[in-house]
Specification:
Helices cover about 25% and strands about 30% of the residues. It is of the alpha+beta class. Helix 1 packs across helix 2 and helix 5 packs antiparallel against helix 6.
Length: about 475
């Protein structure tokens, strides 16, 4: 075959993107390979996969030559490319028993030989024949923001992605939650018949892909594709029913205190929040005290110290005095999304940070004061006030965001009070809730076991395919006569 030319200037960022799905710990040799192919039109495409996701890049300029393809070890190709200059070019070619990588070496070409694997052994890339759906820049921005709020808990798979809610065909929502904060944005109109969950992946947040022209989406029965001008990302979809995400969102008319930050001073406010002292690492508690028309940030270095109050300039607000506590990381995240309006109901209710059609719902936390007299408020337990909705049917038995977004209690040094004796009915109800929790935990364990079995089956199929290829090679060698 005629060698395929690969400009190093394009190959270096290409390997960075393809490396988002490649990892060297796999036991399947074929997954350590990168597929390089030249199409009938001369376009060069590079593909990498982990069996659940496929990433493909098309190089900027076509190359002359007949259609061909070959496999090269990802790590070996990366090592050679690192030693080359951006203005240089490498060549790859296939021969009968090995593949070649030629690279500039002074005034000549160096050559590296690698064992030849048949391109047919590479896992085929799924082809989605459905129509492509263009994604506007505002929708793409909302998707990326939502992915920052999705759960990373492997036991709650349905929350490990971003939901495009298509229940209302004229007003689609982008939603993500991890149980402690929830992001939603509207209103988008896409030609979707059913809602879809886009799996969160580090490639989608990669700057090179995010800025590579308009995104398009294709949704199949088992796979989903997001593509830009030159990149294509294909992933298996997340199965299951997304919980009722609207349940924990407070109604706008319930807010009694509304504070608006100057949109041009959000970056300054973020830096101020990040410099505030923090007396514990788990929740990074920050207080917001609205009193006498002035907003104060509350923080301290340890539990025994009094709260340090720092005024927030350039704000407008109205409503009764109130003090709430929250995880400062979520507040910084929301301000980074340019959400500059804060709506409060009471210290125990979810905090709503919003602007236009976007909002971030943040669950409050306890102040965790050892001395209640030092506390801006003496709340000892925080919980949402709305009733929890019925759980939707789900194959993974996921909790609703309302159930998941419960206030995270801090360890406290306050003296414990003697619990009141419970009636027999209350005791029986507690037993029922305990049994239900045990069943849910068992189902979660079964789900994880099922995922492990499916992964093992995929590896077994790939291994059988490799073994079959070796057997065919042995048969062909046995038929050779000297």
């Amino acid at each position: 075959m005629k060698p395929i030319k690969l400009p190093v200037a394009e190959l270096k960022p290409a390997l960075t993107g393809l490396g988002k799905v490649h990892h060297g710990r796999t036991t399947l040799a074929i997954l350590n390979q990168i597929k390089i192919e030249r199409t009938h039109d001369g376009w060069i495409a590079l593909t990498c996969t982990d069996l659940d996701r496929w990433i493909t890049l098309r190089l900027e300029h076509p190359d002359e030559g007949c259609p061909s393809s070959l496999l090269l070890p990802f790590d070996q190709l990366s090592q050679i490319v690192k030693s080359c200059g951006k203005s240089e070019c490498i060549e790859v070619a296939a021969s009968a028993d090995h593949n070649l990588i030629r690279f500039p070496l002074g005034d000549t070409l160096g050559e590296s030989k690698v064992p030849r694997l048949s391109p047919d052994e590479f896992p085929p890339t799924p082809r989605l024949k459905c129509d492509a759906i263009p994604l506007s820049s505002s929708l793409r921005e909302s998707l990326l923001e939502a992915m920052e709020c999705a759960s990373e808990d492997s036991t709650r798979l349905v929350l490990n992605g971003t939901l495009i809610d298509a229940q209302d065909s004229k007003a689609n929502y982008v939603v993500a939650t991890d149980g402690r904060h929830l992001y939603s944005a509207n209103s988008f109109t896409l030609p979707l018949k059913e809602s879809v969950i886009i799996p969160t992946h580090k490639f989608l947040e990669w700057k090179e892909f995010a800025t590579d022209g308009e995104w398009q989406m294709r949704v199949g029965t088992e796979h989903l594709q997001l593509s830009s001008r030159r990149w294509r990302f294909i992933s298996k979809t997340i199965e299951g029913t997304y919980p009722n995400w609207r349940a924990p969102i407070p109604k706008p008319d319930e807010a009694v205190t509304v504070i608006t930050f100057d949109p041009t001073k959000l970056e300054t406010l973020i830096k101020l929040i990040q410099r505030m002292p923090c007396h514990e690492d788990r929740f990074q508690t920050l207080g917001l005290e609205w009193k006498g028309g002035q907003l104060m940030l509350l923080g301290k270095d340890n539990h025994q110290e009094p709260w340090l109050r720092v005024p927030v300039p350039d704000i407008q607000g109205q409503g009764p005095d109130m003090t709430v506590f929250l995880d400062r990381r979520y507040l910084v995240k929301g301000l980074g999304f340019e959400l500059n309006t804060l709506s409060l109901i009471n210290p125990e209710s979810p905090i709503r940070l919003h602007q236009g059609g976007k909002q971030l719902i943040i669950m409050p936390v306890r102040s965790n004061d050892s001395d209640p007299a030092q506390s801006p408020h003496s709340t000892t337990a925080v919980s949402t006030t709305a009733k929890a909705p019925p759980q939707p049917t789900s194959t993974t038995d996921q909790p609703t965001p309302k159930q998941a977004m419960q206030t995270q209690p801090h360890p406290t040094n306050q003296p414990t009070e003697k619990p009141e004796p419970k009636s027999p009915l209350e005791a029986a109800l507690l037993q029922v809730e305990g049994i239900k929790a045990g069943y849910r935990e068992t189902l979660n364990h079964l789900t994880r076991i099922g995922d492990s079995i499916r992964a093992a089956m995929r590896e077994q199929k790939a291994s059988e395919k490799e073994i079959q290829g070796v057997r065919q090679t042995l048969r062909s060698l046995q038929s050779v006569r000297i």
